[in-house]
Specification:
By secondary structure, this protein is α+β, with helices and mostly antiparallel strands. The chain is built from three helices and 22 strands.
């Protein structure tokens, strides 16, 4: 009988621990206790400790046995049989209705000897076919619903068996003089379990805020029911290294291939190392409280409280919901696209650790798409797609080349560009416009740049921070003049 149970879910796998009271039995080998574990349990991860005085653990042995069907599995099987009976009855009714449809179709084709009867027969055909077609459509929908229920229960039945037909019988040899029972703490890892994060990011640029929602989708295919267990989620990364990578030798020689050592990787299906902190719930944990994040040295642990998660189920739970203050920027790169993109920069008071997952990206309550999301630290920059109310157009106003100076000693190029920003919103909008700025790759190449309004150059890009009036347009003009020696072969890059 389990006194308390705890499950820590990882992205792949789960750590189950429990305090149990077991009867001490005796055979020719001495005293022992028996535990029956799910077929998804991993023997190498099994740990056991005696909580009773004068009871000492000697050794542990594992053996497979056929999975006896649990009452829950038998009940599911009965429900599946009942649904199949209902589905077959509806299929029979559907066949009868289809037979009626065929009859009235043929009836409508028959030639009548009395013209006065044609109208009467036609009316009967239309009336009866209309009723039968309506019945047929309803029966099709009912058959589909029943089949969907059957498929779902069959999936649950398969998951309830833990993906296999066998369980583990664990025999623990103990030393005890007079005790008939003892309390133990056991723990082990389970396959076929895991959790994935689900996020929703909803941007409100005019209010300077972003609504953040974090949910966890838990997959429970262990073959056992988790009843009123302490549930926690660990953000241990998949495919993370156990040890740092080895440095390769730096050898310079002809045609030498440097072989880089690649050991130190943890396999994808390998379970993360289990620590006592993972197996112990947070102090003063309350089952009905909101999920709480516990910071560890290399990961975060989300304490979800007490929950019941039946075998074979997929459940989604709310983990966290916050409103983040954010600085929004509208970014335009007109030579590449007419779209104006929305960027939000968030600086939180405390560091966060959200594992990689899929996020629904929303703008003022309207979904704009999905993207991969992860967040570790305090600062985060997030793009929310383009704003349909803003447009940016890039035009080439002039492009010339020629010569100047005595005897044509210089070659010259001239580019003139125009950018037009269109704001259809009823409020003015500040837009950061970025375009590549030319860089001289030789001191003999001279560049003269002019811009209205004046541009700043950052990271080899022109930048204009401008405010576009409500329901209006804004224009930017800039030009580049270049001259170089006549005999120099030039690569003009994007300006060509």
């Amino acid at each position: 009988m389990a006194a308390s149970e705890r499950v820590v879910f990882y992205p792949s796998g789960a750590d189950f621990s429990s305090k149990v009271k077991a009867n001490i039995k005796n055979d020719v080998s001495g005293n022992y206790v028996m535990f029956t574990l799910s077929g998804q349990a991993i023997p190498d991860t099994f740990t056991i400790a005696s909580l009773s005085k004068n009871v000492v653990i000697n050794d542990v042995s594992w053996a497979r046995s056929d999975l006896s069907r649990s009452p829950a599995a038998i009940d599911l099987g009965k429900k599946i049989d009942q649904l199949k009976f209902k589905r077959d009855a509806v299929l029979s009714r559907k066949k009868a209705v289809d037979g009626g449809i065929s009859f009235w179709k043929e009836r409508g084709k028959e030639q009548q000897t009395k013209p006065s009867d044609l109208g009467k027969i036609a009316g009967q055909v239309v009336e009866n076919l209309s009723k039968l077609y309506a019945q047929s459509n309803k029966l099709d929908a009912k058959i589909a619903d029943l089949q969907e229920l059957i498929n779902d229960l069959q999936r649950q039945l398969k998951e309830m068996a833990g993906g296999g037909k066998r369980v583990w019988n664990v025999k623990v040899s103990v030393a005890s003089k007079s005790a008939k029972s003892a309390e133990f703490k056991i723990g082990y890892m389970l396959r076929n379990c895991g959790w994935i994060p689900k996020y929703k990011l909803d941007a409100y640029p005019s209010d300077g805020k972003m609504k953040f929602t974090f949910e966890a989708e838990i997959r429970q295919g262990s073959g056992i029911d988790f009843k009123n267990c302490d549930i926690a989620l660990a953000t241990v990364k998949r495919l993370s290294r156990i040890s740092p990578p080895q440095l390769s030798r730096w050898v310079i020689e002809p045609q030498a291939e440097v072989e880089i050592a690649r050991d130190g990787y943890a396999m994808e299906e390998a379970m993360p190392m289990v620590t006592s902190a993972m197996r112990e719930p947070a102090k003063n944990a309350v089952s009905k409280r909101a999920p709480m994040r516990v910071n560890k040295a290399t990961y975060s642990l989300w304490e979800m409280g007490r929950k019941t998660i039946p075998a074979g189920s997929i459940r989604k739970y709310a983990v966290e919901s916050e409103t983040w203050k954010s600085d929004f920027t509208f970014i335009a790169r007109p030579s590449l696209t007419p779209d104006v993109f929305v960027s939000a920069e968030t600086n939180l008071e405390s560091a966060k650790d959200y594992p990689a997952g899929v996020a629904l990206m929303m703008m003022e309550g309207t979904m704009i798409g999905k993207r991969r999301f992860t967040f570790s630290g305090k600062e985060k920059k997030i793009f929310f797609g383009s704003d349909p109310m803003l447009k940016a157009e890039h035009k080439i106003l002039e492009k010339k080349s020629g010569e100047k100076g005595m005897f044509g000693s210089k070659q010259t190029y001239s580019w003139k560009y125009g950018i037009e920003l269109d704001n259809s919103r009823n409020k003015p909008v500040k837009i950061l416009v970025q375009e590549p700025a030319p860089v001289s790759g030789d001191k003999r190449i001279k560049l003269e740049i002019s811009s209205k309004p004046k541009a700043e150059i950052k990271d080899d890009n022109f930048e204009w921070q401008v405010e576009v009036p409500a329901s209006d347009k804004y224009k930017i003009n800039y030009s580049i003049e270049m001259n170089a020696p006549d005999d120099m072969k030039l690569d003009l890059g994007s300006g060509s």
